[in-house]
Amino acid sequence: MKAIFITTPIYYVNAKPHIGHAYTTVACDVFARFHRMLGHDVKFTTGTDEHGNKIEQIAKKLNKKPQEFVDDISLLFLNLLPALNISNDDFIRTTQLRHKKAVAHFWNKLYGNGYIYLGEYSGWYDMQNEAYFSEDEINDGKSPLGGAIQFMTEPCYFFKLSEFGEKLLKFYDKNPDFIFPLQRRNEVISFVKRGLADLAISRTSFNWGISVPNDPKHVIYVWLDALTNYLTLNGYPENENQSEDAFWQSSHHFVGKEIVRFHAIYWPAFLMAADMPPPKHVVSHGWWLSEGEKMSKSLGNVQDPLKYCALFGSDALRYFLLRELPFGSDGNFSLEGFVNRYNSILSNSYGNLCQRVLSFICKGCDKIIYRPSKLDPCDVEFIDSVKAALASIASLIEQFAFSRYLEQIELAVSAANKYVDAQKPWVLKDSCPQRMQDILFILVEQIYAITKYFWPVIPLAAEKILQQINVPYSLPLSCQDEFPNVVHVNQPEPAFMRIDVSDLGKFDVYSKD
Ligand code: ME8
Fold first, then answer.
1. If you measure from the C-alpha of residue 503 to the centroid of ligand 1, how many angstroms do you get, rounded to a whole number?
2. The ligand 1 atom nearest the CA atom of 227
3. 282 contacts 60 by C-beta, under 8 angstroms
4. Which residue numbers in the chain have pLDDT < 50?
5. CB 447 within 8 Å of CB 495
6. What would the pLDDT profile of 390-432 be if each residue is shown by its tens digit?
7. What is the Cα–Cα distance from 218 to 206, expressed in whole angstroms?
8. What's the CA-to-centroid distance between 21 and ligand 1, angstroms?
9. 0.90 cut: is pTM over it?
10. Pocket around ligand 1 at a 6 A CB cut-off
């Protein structure tokens, strides 16, 4: 069985989760569900990144112990998962003992292999993003990540990143699909070609972190700590030889574009230094803006995924997040855009198709339909058009083209709606009941094929519709050829209620604090 390891970034617990966090988590979930649907052995993980100066400072301001503070916020990230119907297999917190052990072991390995030395560091430090930058990277008094900077000097351990430039370039060359999309890959390659300086990997200016083994004045740099989560989740250090591990060989780190550098440069270099292979793929996506602007607490435009789920259901949010944007691009998250897509595709097009076909079977065929003994040319044409729309869909997921995947599903739905409108089964009830039931069977079989592919994105609605047509839901989903010859239909209920656009002003979707 093919193994696959799918990870979200572990999120900082400095603030509540928002739409951006929901995005990566949903994309991973869809990728995970798709692979489970194919019968693959999936390990899908997420979690929270809980150490660092920033956390220590916020906790202090709130008069809380850091552990108490991170417990509270981590719980908000944990609670978001069932709300979004996320099917993760594990949730890691960097304050867990299993992780602290893994980080210490990893440090000792890097140290033992001669890649860590003690020195002194001076430089521009971006506290918000926990990273140092060189003089030439500073722009308008800000770091390239947009955070405020300050000049700092501290004794510190260094990782010999400078020794990995050539090795990394060779690795990128041999693994052209290591970084997605191509534009990010090119940026990484040119960054590495400019030359890599050694990396400061310990801090003495604060305490909230994992101590350096045998030198507890130092805490381990939060990114070395955080990146190691992927090893912890894969059983490290007990499972030390990741080069033989099937999950590791097929690991996919999904990340936002701003943290590609950490995942595609530092992380493979750390792993090489510890005699381990880099992950298989770093898959990066763009940023959601909120109503045209970067989401920010001070602008009060941070949109709350929990509110979207409560108002419109998790399926609707999952669908919009993946449909609206090509995966590598930036885009605008607006309530209006959300409601338009919801109404036009989920409610009018797909929901309505299922509802009218299934309720007509209940009314007109006594809830039971049989496979037709023959097909008319128009039936074959319709079946072929659905097949064509769904034919290459698996490869689109493999290319992280979630939006195009959904477009293909919508093409199939629209072919089904055209077929119903052209065949008008309801007018045949008295004149030709056999033809009416044949048309309805053909439609239900194609609704099944469509719903199966829709399932990773809208699992709740898809499972409801599969139950309505009494095709037992199990993984891996059976292929279309196994569709039964007799189908008993249950009384359907609409999967998606239409949203009244005139109600838009009434919906509160923003985070309050
Ligand atoms: O970077 N649009 O954590 P973080 C799209 N702890 N995605 C967004 C987004 C937006 N507006 N805002 C956040 C960290 N994200 C580190 C990661 S991993 C070893 C350590 C998503 O809480 C996106 O995946 O700042 C981004 O990379 C991540 O949240 C950043 O989360």
1. 32
2. 19
3. no
4. 480
5. no
6. 998 999 999 999 999 999 999 999 999 999 999 999 999 999 9
7. 8
8. 6
9. yes
10. 9-12, 20-21, 23-24, 49, 226-227, 229, 255-256, 258-259, 287-288, 295
